[in-house]
Design brief:
By secondary structure, this protein is of the alpha/beta class. The protein folds into 2 domains: about 190 residues, NAD(P)-binding Rossmann-like Domain (Rossmann fold, 3-Layer(aba) Sandwich), CATH 3.40.50; about 200 residues, Dihydrodipicolinate Reductase, domain 2 (2-Layer Sandwich), CATH 3.30.360.10. About 30% of the residues lie in helices and about 25% in strands. It is built from 12 helices and 18 strands. The strands form 4 sheets. The chain has an 8-stranded mixed beta sheet with strand order 14-13-9-12-11-10-17-18, covered by helices on one side. The chain has a 6-stranded parallel beta sheet with strand order 5-4-1-6-7-8, with helices on both faces. A two-stranded antiparallel sheet has the order 2-3. Helix 7 crosses helix 9 and helix 9 packs across helix 12.
Length: about 425
């Protein structure tokens, strides 16, 4: 069987590590998505690699960046790729469609672009018969989510959200332990990135999305994934802090807290969840603070994802808390890339393996329910995020999440 070809749509930090004509100052200078696919190609799991963006004149810099940060760092790592649009085109938002025209049904597409573009790009890829992995949030509204899920069913392709937290061994263990802690009572999460990200994301911050969609999506997905068998969200409020981003010319919130009332089933007992995300944190020992507290009727859990007892201090970077469990960028003793066990890598590889199984006839898209964050299983994530945004836009008014008689989410209602 031939290998699936891959089209990576989006040329930003998470895919390439290249931002504003230089390596990102974050912990992802070498990127995540492209680096992972270069290694998967080296390992014989994928075929042709393509990259689509909106600015062709960015690609010479991207190639030079890949050469410096990947090819020269890791042994036997080929960083060649086809690019769309061509290098002489300064702007073409529709270039990804030209790239899709080169793909075959059954090939694989990743979408790591501004949040408000996810739906149209993913839908176009699905309608061409491609399997699609989309950055969180997969889309921004319940209506878009339903349409995407329906299109995936009609084309019999796999569509899923890339949420690497599901492969973090700490989060996975916490999810399993939650099952033995009785009914859900309270959850509180915090996730931040330094204020330098306001510049990294200046082209879309406050225009196409906000920090809640970008960061709170992680922990909202975690609660839906961990608690979906025993509880459901029923009402949402949004709160925000403002001032710093506006002072820098960005019409967006600094920090957003989404407050969510959950309902245990079948008892009807209520639970609370607070999801807080910010992009005005100071520079610290980690790029992203990430932690949560969980309380059940019979016990509690606390996770500090950013600090795992592993740190380094050096003259160049000062003190740092390290997390190679996400992406291990340090080469092994022979000079090869050795990050295959990182949960940032594994979440992408798991999707590639699923696509390979579907292409060979050994599995169907439906077989990955419960194994991947499929479009059919993540509707409640979108519902909470959309309700939070609507609440913020409505002055903090609550929104109810509505269900039909079968327990399926059918929409939102103010009040």
């Amino acid at each position: 069987m031939d290998l699936p070809n891959v089209l990576m749509i989006g040329t930003g930090e998470y895919t390439t590590g290249y931002v504003h004509d230089r390596a990102s100052p974050s912990d992802k200078s070498a990127g995540v998505v492209a680096l992972t696919f270069f290694d998967l190609r080296r390992r014989g799991k994928v075929g042709r690699l393509s990259l689509a963006g909106t600015n062709g004149k960015k690609f010479p810099g991207v190639r030079q960046h890949f050469q410096q940060w990947i090819a020269e760092r890791y042994k036997d790592m080929d960083v060649q790729f086809e690019s769309f649009p061509s290098d002489d085109v300064p702007r073409d938002p529709g270039a990804y469609r030209q790239a899709l025209d080169t793909m075959r049904p059954g090939d694989l597409v990743t979408v790591f672009t501004p949040d408000d573009t996810h739906f149209r790009i993913a839908l176009d890829a699905i309608r061409r018969g491609c399997h699609v992995l989309v950055a969180k949030p997969i889309v921004k509204t319940i209506e878009e989510h339903r349409r995407l899920a329906q299109a995936a069913r009609e084309q019999n392709v796999l569509a899923a959200m890339e949420v690497h937290k599901r492969w973090d061994p700490i989060y996975t263990d916490a999810r399993d332990r939650i099952r033995d802690l009785g009914e859900f009572s309270h959850f509180a999460s915090y996730m931040s990135q330094p204020k330098s990200q306001l510049e990294t994301f200046r082209h879309w911050a406050g225009r196409s999305s906000d920090i809640s969609y970008y960061l709170n999506a992680h922990h909202i997905d975690f609660t839906v994934w961990a608690l979906g068998h025993m509880a459901r969200p029923v009402q949402v409020w949004g709160l925000a802090a403002t001032g710093l981003a506006v002072s820098r010319g960005l019409d967006t919130e600094d920090t957003i807290t989404v407050c969510c009332q959950w309902e245990n089933r079948p008892s009807g007992n209520r639970a609370t969840a607070l999801y807080t995300a910010s992009w005005i944190a100071p520079k610290s020992d980690v790029h992203s603070q990430q932690r949560f507290f969980y309380m059940g009727h019979r016990g509690e859990l606390e996770v500090d994802q950013a600090h795992r007892g592993y740190s380094q201090a050096d003259d160049a970077s000062g003190f740092q808390s390290l997390n190679p469990l996400f992406m291990k960028y340090t080469p092994d003793a022979q000079g090869y890339f050795a990050g295959q066990l990182g949960y940032g890598y594994r979440s992408i590889e798991a999707f590639v393996d699923a696509v390979t199984a579907i292409r060979s006839g050994d599995a169907s898209p439906a077989d990955f329910a419960g194994r991947l964050a499929t479009v059919d299983e993540t509707l409640l994530v979108t519902a909470i995020l959309e309700a939070g945004r609507r609440s913020l836009d409505g002055g903090g008014r609550p929104y109810q999440i509505l269900y039909d008689a079968h327990g399926n989410c059918v929409g939102l209602r103010e009040g």
